[in-house]
Design a protein that fits this description.
The protein has 107 residues and is an all-alpha fold. It has helices at residues 4-15, 25-54, 57-78, 82-92, 97-103. 77% of the residues lie in helices and 0% in strands.
Length: 107
């Protein structure tokens, strides 16, 4: 499972690591560190859920785009390659969500 648009965005995000935080929002996120990126992702997830409950499909799409962008920043910060996520989704293809969840090891 591959999405060329998300792959391109991920490449741009990775290219911003080490850039000047005054000239790049993504570089500013990286400069804030993992905790700040995770907090921003949480904020965007809340906004997406709120939009789903109270706003138009267009707002849900806009908030979803923000959420995906911040998730990709978190992947880059934590060393997760987009290809690894696509591979994991591919591995799960055709498996019942209930079966996949039951097969996970307890944490």
């Amino acid at each position: 499972m591959v999405n060329a648009g998300l792959d391109r965005l991920f490449a741009v995000i990775e290219s911003r690591r080490g850039a000047d935080p005054d000239g790049s929002y993504t570089a500013r996120l990286f400069a804030g560190g993992r905790e700040a990126i995770a907090a921003k992702l949480t904020e965007e997830a809340r906004e997406t859920a709120r939009a789903a409950l109270t706003e138009s499909p267009q707002r849900v799409a806009a908030e979803s785009a923000d959420l995906l962008y911040h998730l990709l920043v978190l992947w880059a910060e934590t060393g997760v390659a987009a290809a690894d996520v696509w591979a994991e989704l591919g591995r799960r293809e055709g498996i019942s969500g209930l079966a996949e969840k039951a097969a996970r090891r307890p944490r």
